[in-house]
TrEMBL record:
Residues 181-196 form the CCHC-type domain. The gene is CFAP57_1. Residues 902-919 have a biased composition (Basic and acidic residues). This is Cilia- and flagella-associated protein 57. InterPro entries: Beta-prop_EML-like_2nd, CFA-57, Quinoprotein_ADH-like_sf, WD40/YVTN_repeat-like_dom_sf, WD40_rpt, Znf_CCHC, Znf_CCHC_sf. Keywords: Cell projection, Cilium, Coiled coil, Flagellum, Metal-binding, Repeat, WD repeat, Zinc, Zinc-finger. It comes from Merluccius polli (Benguela hake).
């Protein structure tokens, strides 16, 4: 055996078509079928454990979990079909029992159910018998069987309709027969109202022609579901098309108890909601409540109200058995109820595509109300997001704690929802989420891995491309397209993806959240594309041609041709120098990538290859097909030779992969198994085979570190295996480091950053808002607390006062009650004494009566005893008499029996003697007859031998004649059919010929008309030729005039450039002058303001001088009166002298001193204090004025700097404006040149203009346009 083994690690996918394909083991673990395994999956920890299917199994059909969640039953098709029961308490799911139907004619088991105590198992088989098998499974004992379809009508035929497309029209053909072949299932002789494999409702299925897509229908069989009563392990319910029956197991047999009248109604599922009630769902969206075999009520899954019952009519006898209602129930279209699940509050059911309705019990009896809906959300990664919402629900499952609801769909997807977090009871719509990730729903056609990342890419016929991470077991990226994806290849860097579609081959970027196309190649129907190991090349297959493209330039650098059939697979060598291909023509070619030449070949036309691989040293090629071949190059010739061959053993190898170490080869087969074959290849059948998938393995890959193996299958599943040796160690111990780089577009990154900023600001705003709201709440709550505390304090005080009042009232009432109690006690004691006296007298009387009765009783007992003794004595005497009579009779019979025995012995002796004599006579006769007949037998044997030979010859001749006769009859039938078809074709062709003749006649007339038109056009063409000659001559003249005009245009362009340069210089000077004028205007304005201020100051000074002169003349008149003079001078001083006018004060004092020394001395002595105060104030004011001047200087400097800055900015803006003007002028000049070139090109097309137009163009002066250009500026 091989030293390397493969262990199942993780699987992506769900097996479709399995009944009850989703079960909860506990609140975190589920069981579902995938590939050819049952998978135990932990929702929280994301681990998987596998229960492999049995060998040579043809696929799983149904699952069933016991009520104690300990045992799992798996139904598998095969020869014979089996039911395997596994013990789930064991870590690996140990196999407990394997059940078979024995000699019963059973082809498959469609559905199963465990009894509530997990002791019994009931299985429903398929057609044509539809047998129920009742097992005591622990003892592998079939307790009883019964046909669930027994008693169905068999007098109806199967109606078939199908479309035929002929020409541009579609024709519908109908047939009805009980002996013809069914167009739906292929069986012959259906005598039922519907085919057993037909869609629900008994409606006629229309067979679609090629190219048409038929809408999916929900299938319903005559017996579609079976279940046990959860409170009674002897009661069974079976439902199907027109069928809902209850059986009871007793006395070793299943006995039919009740059957609801549901003829013509297709029941898809049912569930027990109590010990006597069953809810069933139909294909028209109806829910039926059956109690004790009688139909109680029905309603729509969408809660459309049911019409009220008529007067005097009970619910159990609702008129649903009429023919009209049965037809209405059959033809009414609506959402199908495909699954029903009971739970503690009611039940849940599917209500059409992507919808689950929740019904709960109400207070009324037998009544349920709809409390909510749970929907499957749209898929944002799909090109049709609403397609996910159209999935039909296959199975519903609820966790034991009723916290999580999970479902599986008929598209192979798993969804779940937490019932605790979902607000279902409020009537709001909730949405499911993927249980783990979305899976492929159709066969996987492509598989690829990369080197730098733990990624694997798959593509499928469901038009999707998915990128998985086999390290974390999650789906990284997923996208659906308009076309089917046929092949896929990951770039070694893990950043690019190559996908082959039916129309083109596309190169895509793997972004952080999207798969985006950036290059397309015209390679149609590319079913295989592979990147080289270096990533600089890739090979793409188109039929029998191989294209090699460069990844850097996207050029097709090589096209390899040589295969006569389709190329199935290609493989690169480790150095990317060679490419190996294999095809359906039985050829394996090795190509040189640099030269494009074929270096070696191996052709076996009897073999069809499906896969190819190259060893690490590129010396050995492995090809897979009907067998596995090891091909090695011959150094002396181009032809390669097959070294070893491993046969397929009744299967075909569909894919293969070689480990990087070269120790082992992994192959996938058409039966879905994986084979591990050691290298060098063994001469005998020496391999390990694993049950992997239920469909053919399409792709097999080994990771670059030899740690994992990946297999993809036609069942849509992707399985990850761990490669270890028998000791559990990997093939390579070298640790691989993966990169974490991803591709992000600039716009996406900017959008994300912008969104982050917006979210940050939003979070800050929300925080501030919440803090503000919390403060407001705190304030309001504090106010409320104060109010409540005050009210409570007031209420407590009021209650205390009320309590005291009630205490006082209670004391008063207790005193009153004590007094009343004393009175009542005395009264009752008196009444008691009186009653005792009266009762004692009554008792004495009763005692006397009882004594008399006792005496009567004793007398009666004595009388009865006497009578009883007499009766006993008479009975004894009668018994003795009977005993004596019977003993006498017995003695007589004994004597007669002795005589009979003696006679019998005598007769036996006589019989023995007669027998002995008869035997002796018979022996003698037998001996004589034996001798006579032996002679006759010898003669007859010789005659028989001769006749046998003649009979063999005649049989051979008869067989050959019968075969010839059958062949002739078949040929005659085929020829008749062909003749009928050809007659129809001939008739249609004759009609087509008549139509075509009419068309030909019309076209002949049209041709004649067109010939006339052609003649006229020929004449016009000749005239145009003449015109062309004249226009060519004119064109030559114009070309001669073009050269001098081009020189003139060039000169004009130079002149324009010089003028524009001068204009630019003038603009700059003008700008500078404008700035200088603005400065001068500002200075002039400031100077004018200063002049006005000085003028005002001068005017004020003149007015002050005039007033001073007047006052001085007035003082001069007082020279003779010193006191008045002093007062007048002081008044003048107060009026005209300011603190800043200290000098004037001194001058004035000196003048006064000169005029009158005596008075001045007196004035100086008096005003010494006034002068000191004046000087102090003067110093203060001078300091204040100095500080204000300093502040003014600083403000002026700041204002000047601001003005300088503004001037600089204005200068830079003006420079930018000048540059823009220059660019505008350049653009206008380019437009002008373009107009000139257009005009010149128009002149070179003489056929499109008349001679007058040419003259007009030739006479147009370019100076006009050139002179107009500067005016635009």
């Amino acid at each position: 055996m091989a030293a390397v083994v493969a262990q199942s690690s993780h699987i992506f996918g769900l097996r479709k078509g399995v009944t009850n394909n989703l079960c909860f083991l506990d609140d975190q673990t589920i069981v579902f079928p995938s590939g050819n395994n049952c998978v135990r999956y932990n929702i929280d920890q994301k681990w998987q454990k596998f229960i492999p299917g049995t060998e040579k199994s043809q696929g799983m059909q149904a699952l069933a979990l016991s009520a104690n969640r300990r045992y799992l039953a798996v139904s598998e098709r095969g020869e014979p079909p089996t039911v395997t029961v596994y013990d789930l308490t064991h870590e690996q799911g140990r196999k407990r029992k394997v059940l078979t139907a024995g000699d019963l004619p059973v082809g498959e088991f469609l559905c199963m159910a465990f009894s509530p105590d997990s002791k019994y198992l009931i299985c429903q088989s398929g057609g044509p018998k539809w047998t129920l098998v009742f097992w005591l499974w622990e003892k592998q004992k079939v307790m009883t069987t019964i046909s669930s379809s027994e008693g169905d009508p068999v007098n109806q035929t199967l109606d078939v309709s199908f479309r035929v497309r002929h020409g541009e029209g579609n024709y519908m053909l109908y047939a009805s027969s009980g002996s013809m072949k069914c167009f739906e299932c292929g069986d012959v002789g259906h005598r039922r109202a519907a085919c057993p494999h037909r869609p629900a409702g008994g409606r006629t299925q229309t067979a679609a022609v090629a190219g048409d897509e038929a809408a999916p229908a929900v299938a319903a069989a005559p017996a579609a579901a079976v279940s046990f009563n959860p409170q009674d392990n002897t009661q069974v319910c079976v439902s199907g098309v027109g069928l809902l029956r209850l059986y009871h197991y007793g006395e070793g047999a299943l006995k039919r108890t009740n059957a609801a009248k549901v003829e013509g109604i297709a029941l898809l599922c049912h569930a027990w909601v109590s010990g006597a009630r069953v809810v069933a769902g139909t294909d028209t969206g109806r829910l039926l409540m059956i109690e004790s075999g009688e139909l109680r009520w029905e309603l729509d899954a969408g809660i459309r109200p049911v019409p009220p019952l008529e007067t005097g009519q009970t619910e159990s006898k609702r008129p649903i058995d009429t023919k009209a209602e049965r037809n209405a129930a059959t033809t009414t279209t609506g959402p199908s109820v495909t699954a029903i699940l009971p739970y503690s509050k009611g039940f849940m059911c599917s209500a059409g595509p992507g919808t689950v309705c929740v019904f709960e019990n109400t207070e009324e009896k037998d009544s349920y109300r709809k409390t909510g809906e749970i929907l499957i959300p749209p898929d944002p990664c799909s090109n049709e997001p609403s397609r996910a919402q159209q999935q039909e629900v296959a199975t519903l499952s609820l966790s034991p704690g009723e916290e999580t609801l999970a479902l599986s769909t008929q598209q192979g997807q798993l969804y779940a929802i937490s019932l605790i977090s979902a607000e279902i009871s409020r009537g709001e719509q909730a949405h499911f989420e993927f249980l783990s990730s979305s899976f492929h729903s159709k066969p996987i056609t492509g598989l690829s891995i990369c080197i730098r990342k733990p990624l694997v890419a798959t593509c499928s016929l469901d038009r999707s491309v998915r990128v998985w991470n086999y390290d974390t077991n999650v789906l990284e990226l997923y996208k659906e397209f308009q076309e089917e994806a046929l092949s896929v290849s990951l770039h070694p860097s893990g950043l690019f993806l190559l996908v082959g579609f039916t129309d083109k081959l596309r190169m895509m970027n793997l972004l952080i959240d999207d798969i985006r196309t950036f290059k397309e190649f015209t390679v149609r129907g590319c079913r295989e594309c592979v990147f080289s190991h270096g990533g600089h090349l890739f090979a793409a297959i188109n039929g029998n041609v191989i294209h090699i493209y460069s990844v850097t330039t996207f050029d097709n650098i090589l096209t390899l041709k040589g295969h006569n059939g389709k190329v199935q697979a290609v493989a690169w060598s480790a150095d990317d120098g060679r490419l190996v291909s294999c095809g359906a023509d039985g050829a394996v070619y090795e190509w040189n990538v640099f030269s494009g030449k074929r270096e070696s070949e191996s052709v076996l036309k009897s073999c069809v290859y499906t896969g190819v691989a190259v060893s690490s040293d590129a010396r050995t090629i492995f090809a897979a097909g009907t067998s596995l071949k090891e091909i090695q190059d011959c150094q002396a010739s181009v032809c390669a030779r097959v070294l070893r061959e491993v046969p397929g053993d009744d299967v075909t190898y569909t894919a293969l992969a070689v480990s990087r170490s070269g120790k082992v080869i992994f192959t996938g087969t058409s039966s879905g198994t994986l084979r591990v074959i050691k290298y060098p290849l063994p001469l005998q059948k020496d391999w390990i085979e694993y049950q992997a998938h239920c469909g053919p393995v399409t792709k097999v890959l080994v990771t670059f570190d030899d740690q994992l193996l990946l297999t993809a299958s036609g069942d849509g599943s992707l399985l990850v295996w761990r490669i270890v040796d028998k000791e559990g160690r990997g093939l390579r111990d070298k640790e691989v480091h993966y990169t974490e780089e991803i591709l992000v577009t600039k716009t996406d990154l900017e959008e994300k950053n912008q969104n982050m900023q917006e979210l940050k600001t939003r979070v800050e705003e929300l925080q501030m808002e919440k803090e503000y709201q919390l403060r407001l709440c705190d304030i309001s709550y504090n106010d409320k607390i104060k109010e409540l505390s005050e009210t409570f304090i007031r209420e407590i005080e009021s209650l205390k006062t009320e309590n005291q009042v009630m205490k006082r009232e209670g004391e008063k009432q207790s005193v009153a009650h004590q007094d009343a109690l004393m009175e009542i006690t005395e009264k009752h004691s008196k009444e008691l004494q009186d009653s005792e006296c009266s009762n004692s007298q009554k008792l004495l009387l009763e005692y006397a009566k009882s004594a008399e009765l006792q005496q009567q009783k004793q007398a009666m007992e004595e009388e009865y005893e006497r009578r009883l003794g007499a009766a006993e004595q008479s009975g004894a005497r009668a018994l003795e008499e009977l005993t004596l009579s019977f003993q006498a009779k017995l003695h007589d019979k004994t004597q007669q029996l002795g005589q009979c025995q003696d006679e019998a012995r005598q007769q036996r002796r006589e019989f023995e003697e007669d027998k002995r004599q008869t035997e002796e006579d018979a022996d003698q006769e037998i001996q004589g007859l034996r001798l006579r007949y032996e002679k006759r037998l010898y003669g007859e044997k010789e005659t028989n031998l001769t006749l046998r030979g003649e009979t063999g010859i005649m049989k051979k001749q008869l067989g050959s004649l019968q075969r010839e006769l059958e062949e002739r009859c078949g040929d005659i039938e085929r020829l008749k059919k062909e003749a009928t078809r050809l007659h129809g074709v001939i008739r249609s062709l004759e009609k087509d010929i008549l139509g075509l003749k009419k068309v030909i006649a019309e076209r002949v007339e049209t041709i004649r008309d067109k010939e006339k038109v052609i003649g006229e056009q020929t004449k016009k063409n000749q005239e145009l030729e003449k015109l062309k000659y004249s226009q060519n001559y004119t064109l030559e003249e114009l070309k001669k005039n073009i050269a001098p005009r081009d020189h003139a245009i060039a000169g004009m362009k130079e002149q324009i450039q010089e003028m524009e340069a001068e204009l630019e210089h003038f603009h700059q000077k003008n700008t500078q002058l404008e700035l200088r004028v603005d400065d001068l205007k500002l200075k002039l304005r400031a100077t004018g303001q200063e002049r006005n201020m000085e003028m005002q100051r001068v005017k004020q000074s003149e007015a002050t001088v005039r007033r001073f002169k007047v006052d001085l003349h007035r003082c001069a008149a007082l020279l003779q009166e010193p006191k008045q003079l002093k007062a007048a001078v002081q008044e003048m001083y107060g009026c005209y002298v300011r603190p800043s006018d200290g000098v004037n004060l001194i001058e004035t004092q000196g003048l006064i001193y000169k005029r009158d020394q005596t008075s001045s001395v007196e004035i100086a002595g008096v005003d010494a204090d006034i002068q000191r105060e004046h000087v102090r104030q003067q110093d203060h004011l001078e300091k204040t004025v100095g500080s204000l001047k300093t502040q003014l200087a600083k403000d002026s400097e700041l204002q000047r700097q601001k003005n300088v800055k503004l001037m600089r900015e204005n200068v830079s803006l003006i420079q930018e404006i000048n540059k823009l003007r220059q660019e505008l002028r350049t653009a206008r000049a380019q437009i002008h040149d373009h107009h000139i070139r257009t005009a010149v090109a128009a002149r070179n097309k003489p056929n499109r203009r008349s001679p007058d137009e040419h003259r007009a163009v030739a006479g147009t002066s370019p100076d006009t346009e050139i002179t107009r250009r500067p005016s635009i500026t």
